[in-house]
Amino acid sequence: MCKTQLHAFACRLVLSGIATLTAALATCLWWPTASEAQTPEIIPLSEVHAGMHGYGYTIFAGDQVEKFDVDVIGVLDNFMGPKQSIILVQLKGAKVEHTGVVAGMSGSPVYLDGKLAGALSLKLGQFTKEPIGGVTPIEDILNPPLGAGTAPAAVTAKNSPVMANGLALQQIESPLIFSGFQPSALQPFASQMQNFGFVAAMGGTAPAQPDDAKLVAGDMAGMVLVQGDASISAACTVTAVTADKVYLCGHPFLSLGKLEIPMARARVVTTLASDLASTKIVNVGGPIGTITGDHLTAVTGNLGKPPAMVPLDLTLDAGGGEKKLHFEIIDNPKLTPLLVALTTFNGLSQNNLYSEGTTLRLSGEIRLQGHPPVEMENTFAPGDSMSPDALPIALTMQNVFGRLFNNSFETARVDHISLKVKSEPGHQSFVIDSAWLEKGEAAPGETLKVRVLLHPYRGASRVEETTIHVPDQIVRGSNLRVMVSDAELLNRASRGFAAGSGGATGLDQLIALLNRERRNDRLYVGLFVPSPTMLWDDKELPNVPLSEVNVVDGRPAPGSVQLLRESLASESSIPLGGPVTGVVSLNLQIR
C-alpha cells in the first residue's frame, strides 16, 4: 500500500501506535508517488469528459507538496488555437477554496483516473466565489503543437476577452520575484514590465541545498533573470520530470521560444490569500539547470549545469570611498536592455550618491566577444523635478543595449559590463539662452565665430565662444542654417527618426559610432546645408533624386526609409563639465 520509504515509514508509525490510521492514509494520498514524479502515465484528452474526479499537487508553504481535488467541468475544444484545447476544472479542498487559484500555481500537475492529465495554467476571473481553472492537456505539454510558440492574445491577462459579469479565462500569473529591490526602484519601469506581462511579487533568495535538483511533480522551479547583490526570478510549479527533462508552468513565461537561461529551485515561504489575487511568496534557491524552451503549452528545461550569464560590476564613488556591487544578467535581446536598466537604477537609487548640489559622472565599458568594447562616458545632474535622479543613467544604459542587441548585422555577445558612477560636489548644468554669429554672411571656406549665452544652474549667465567652418564646396547664394544645441537635439537633426545604426555597415562600425556619439556635457554648433539625404536601413544616400524626394516627402515611409531635408556639413563643440540643454537656430547667407 505504501510504496516509497516515506510511505512505509508513515505506515510503521501507525503500527507502532505513534500515529493514527487517518494520518497515515493522508500521508500516502498527499505525496506524489514515484511513478507520478518521474514516469507518469498519461490520460489522453479524448478520454477526458465532464464529471470526472481527480486531484492535483502544489506547494502552499515550505517544501511539502500538498494535494487538492478537482472536478472536470468540461473540455473547451480549440480554445488556445486550432487543435489546442483546455480542460475546465473546479478545484476542491479547504486551502484552494480559501485562496482560489494562486499566482505561482501554474504548472501544478492534475491527475484523472490516477493518470497525468495536464497542468493547471488558467484561472477564471477575479473575485470569483469558486476556484475554477483551465488545464493544459499533457499531450500538448510533452509534444507542443506545431507553431505553439506564442500565447494568443485571447488568453493573456492584459488582453482577456470580456465574458459575463466581466469574467475572463486568463493565464495564471508567474510571480516575478524581486530580491534586493525597493518598490520605488520598479516604478519608473512599471509600464515596460506590464507590457511583458510581469507581475511583481514578494520574495527573496535561499542558499543552495544538496537536494535542490531533486524535483518532483508539484515542486517549484524558478527562471533566473538577474542574480548577485540583487536578483530577479520567476517561479512556476513543476508538472512532470522525465529523466533530466523538466516541464513546468503549463503556459508560456514570455513566449520567447528557444532560449537559455538558468533554472533554479524555488521554495515557498507561504501563500498569501487575497480576494483580488492570491500569490505564493517564494525564495529562489540554488541553480539546477537550464530553461531551454518557452512555448504556448509549457516552459521546459534540463537538469544539469546552468548557462553562463553576463557579469555586471557597478562601482559607486561618493567621495568617501567606493562601494562595489556585482550582478549577473541573462543574455537575451528582448530582456537584457530592460534588466540592465532596472539593475543599474536600483543599485544607484539605494545608495547615497547624489543630492541637490552634486553631479554624477558615468564611465565604463561593455566588452563584446570578438569586437572592440563600447566605451561609456556621460554626465548627469539631478534636476528640480520629481523624476528620480538616477533614471537618466539607467535609460542611457537601456538605450545602448537596445541598439547593440537590435542591430541588423549579427548577434551581439556580451562578455562583461563594467560601470562606475562618481558623485562630484557642485551642480553643473547649463541651458542655452541665445546665440549669435559674428556676421550674417560668409564665403565658402571661411571660418566664423559663434557666441552662445548660457545660463548655469543657479548661477550668473556667461558667454562661450567657438567657431564653425563653411566648407569650400558650398554653393554661393545658398542659405544655410547654424544650429546651436545640446547633443541629443543635434543627433536628432542629423539622423532624423532613423534607427540607431546611423549609417553603420556592421557591428564594429556600430560600436565605433556609439563610441563617437556626442556627449551631453558639451555645447554643439552644427552647420546644415539644404541637401536632401535619404536614410534607408543602415545606409545614408545623399543628393537623392527629386522623384524619390516626392515619394518619401520628409515623412517616415514603410520600413525604415527616412528623408532629411538638410545635411550636416560641419560642427564644433565646447566641453562644459555638466549637462547642456536647449537649441537656437541661426541663418547664414553664403555670398
Walk me through the topology.
Layout (H helix, E strand, L loop, with lengths): L4 H11 L5 H10 L3 H5 L14 E7 L5 E17 L2 E9 L1 H6 L9 E4 L2 E10 L7 E6 H5 L26 E3 L3 E5 L3 H4 L3 H7 L2 E3 L1 E3 L14 E9 L2 E12 L2 E4 L8 E16 L6 E16 L4 E5 L6 E8 L4 E8 L6 H14 L8 E11 L5 E7 L10 H15 L8 E12 L4 E8 L3 E2 L4 E10 L5 E8 L9 E7 L1 H9 L11 H10 L5 E8 L3 E4 L2 E4 L3 H7 L8 E4 L2 E9 L4 E2 L1 E8 L1
Parallel strand pairs: 8-9, 10-15, 17-21, 22-32, 23-33
Antiparallel strand pairs: 1-2, 1-4, 2-3, 3-6, 4-5, 5-6, 5-7, 8-12, 11-12, 11-14, 11-18, 12-13, 13-16, 14-15, 15-16, 17-18, 19-20, 19-21, 22-24, 24-25, 26-27, 26-33, 27-31, 28-29, 28-30
Structural features, described:
The chain starts with a helix and ends with a strand. The radius of gyration is 30 Å and the shape is elongated. The protein folds into four domains: about 1-30, no CATH class; about 40-305, no CATH class; about 310-425, Ubiquitin-like (UB roll), CATH 3.10.20; about 430-590, no CATH class. The chain has about 600 residues and is α+β, with helices and mostly antiparallel strands. α1 (about 5-15) packs antiparallel against α2 (about 20-30) and α8 (about 335-350) packs antiparallel against α9 (about 390-405). The relative contact order is 0.09. Helix content is about 15%, strand content about 40%. Mean pLDDT is about 80; it is low at about 1-30, about 145-165 and about 495-500. It contains twelve helices and 33 strands. The chain has a six-stranded antiparallel barrel. A six-stranded antiparallel β-barrel has the order 11-12-13-16-15-14. Strands 23-33-26-27-31 form a five-stranded mixed β-sheet, covered by helices on one side.
